[in-house]
Every structure is written in C-alpha cells, then in structure tokens.
Amino acid sequence: MTQESVPTTEELATAGVRLEIHGALARITLARPERHNAMTGRTWTALAHIGHTLSRSVRIVVIDGAGASFSSGIDLAMFDPAGGLPGEQSLLQRLLSESDDSATHASLDADIASYQAGYRWLRRPDIVSIAAVHGHAIGAGFQLALACDLRILAEDAQLSMREPALGLVPDLTGTKPLVELVGRSRAIELCLTARTISAREAHELRLAELVVPNAELDGAVTDLVDALLATPAGAARATKELLGQAGENSLEEQAAAERAAQIERLQAMAQRLPE
Ligand code: ACO
Q1: Is the pLDDT of residue 2 over 70?
Q2: What is the CA radius of gyration of the chain?
Q3: DSSP 3-state of 63
Q4: Number of H helices, E strands in the chain
C-alpha cells in the first residue's frame, strides 16, 4: 500500500488553512481573516487530508482562527446561484445545471461525505482535539468547534447555528455533539432560532470547558496541552476509547470494556518491567 503524501503548502493555502506540527502538537489555523475565516469545500477536504496523513507522534490537535474570528462558517459564495468560488461551481449552480437528479443527488452526497470527513477524524481516540475559539463561530465554524473533543472560548466568542435560518440543516456532524452536550430541547431552540450564544452562556450550557479573557486564550491552550501530554499516550488513548463508548453501552457492556482495557494496560506495564 502506498503512503498518502501530506498536504502541500499550495493545497493548504488554497484551502485557507495553516498547519504547524511541533512534536506531539499539531496546530491548524483557519487563515482567511479577510473573510472571518469563511470555509469552502477545499477547506474541509484539506482538513480531511491533514487527518489521514497526520504523523502518529501527534497526540494533540489545536484548531484556532487567524484575525477577528474563529470562523464565519461556509463561504456564502458556495450558495451563489450566479457563480461560485474561483474555478468551482456553486452548490446551487450544480443543481440548476445538471439534469439527471439521481446522479446529482449521488455526487452531492459523496461531496458532503468528503466534507464531513474533515470533521470526523477530530474524534479519533489517538488524539485529543481542542478548539480555541474567539470572535464568531457561525454555522460550519460552530460545527467545527463541536467536532473537537474540548472547547476553550475567549470572552468575546459568539456561537450561532445559522444553517436553519438560511434554509439549510447543520450537516457537518454538528447535530450529534450539540444534542449530547445541551440536550434535545435546547438544541432545537438554538438551531431553530439561530440565535447567538455568548461565551458565558456557552459555558453554562457545557459547550465550553473553559472561558478566559482574550489575552489569556493562548496561555490557557498551552496549559491544557501540557496537562494532557503529561498523561501517558497509551492510557490516554484507551481511556478516550472507553469514554467514547460509555454513552451507548449498557453498564454491563461498559464494565466488560473497562476490564478488557485494564488488562491491556497491565500487560503493557508488565512488558516494560525488568524480568
Ligand atoms: N462567506 C463569505 N464572505 C464572508 C463570510 C462568509 N461566511 N463572512 C464574512 N464574509 C465577508 C464579508 O462579506 C465581508 O466582505 P467585504 O469586506 O468584501 O464586504 C468581510 O468578510 C468582512 O465581514 P463583515 O460582515 O464586514 O464583518 P462584520 O464584523 O461586520 O461581521 C460576521 C462578521 C458576523 C461574521 C458577518 O460577516 C456574517 O454574518 N457573515 C455571514 C455568516 C454566515 O451566514 N455564515 C454561513 C452560516 S451557515 C453554514 O456555515 C453552513
């Protein structure tokens, strides 16, 4: 099997993304500040590409935004019936120009799945993903923060699930974590009003692990990264796997999973001890 090559600088630049890797830490920065880091299909496929090719030594992925915001969501040019982004048809143009409904449906389904892949890998057990959010996190930007395991918000953060207000649904994997975090009723209220959630309310609703003054965001992320990296990698991965299953498993199943994981941990410890 040939190894997939890592994203090129050109691919990342076209996607509006910067990637820096220092040892166990990868930092992904959404980098179209002149558009409040609006994202395109290329942003999401580049995120997926980063995930597929991430070095196995990376244990923490931090996602943040350059400029005034985390992200203003999808680039609205993707809906423009009269045009799209340079070199691309907009989603609506495709629907208007293609006559075969079932083929269009299949190709849109495949495209949305490829966009979702940019979000889904952030839940992998071998990494912990952290969204460091300041300014606006709207629509696809809010969903990107929800795709991460943990969220640290600056005091000026403003979250909004804008899709329903635009006649759409949130389709970038955001509905499940939103319901898990805030409950079904609150999720309905937030999505169907598309209202803005302040950082303080986000904390109350369990949408943020921590809220800090803007000037302290970087420091708070560094402290969290250091604390996470202090835990041995094998134990961190196994524990994240267990916590990931806990919601779906019965107590019986979860207890069995804990036993199996613990025996693996003990075996790993025993192998490291001198004979
Ligand atoms: N897509 C494309 N361009 C955008 C987007 C976007 N999502 N968001 C901002 N921009 C552009 C603006 O059009 C403006 O461009 P211009 O300088 O050429 O006029 C520039 O970024 C700066 O934005 P302003 O609106 O001037 O900045 P302001 O601080 O007043 O407002 C805000 C920022 C709140 C983010 C506002 O721009 C906004 O509401 N944007 C649209 C958000 C949106 O509806 N996103 C889609 C959600 S649904 C989804 O993601 C699937």
Answers
A1: no
A2: 20
A3: strand
A4: 11, 9
Class of the CATH-defined domain 9-229: alpha beta
Q: Ligand 1: distance of its center to the CA of 36 in Å?
A: 6
CATH for 233-272, options being 2.60.40, 1.10.12, 1.10.3470, 1.10.287? 1.10.12
Torsion, Cα 28 34 37 38, to 10 degrees, reads -150
Classify 39 as helix, strand or coil. strand
Q: CA 133: distance to chain centroid?
A: 12
Around ligand 1, the residues with Cβ closer than 6 Å are 35-36, 38, 72-76, 136, 138-140, 162-163, 166, 168
- Summarize pLDDT for 97-136 with one digit per residue, the tens: 777 778 888 889 999 999 999 999 999 999 999 999 999 9
Ligand 1 geometric centre to CA of 222 (Å): 29
Per-domain boundaries in the chain: 9-229, 233-272
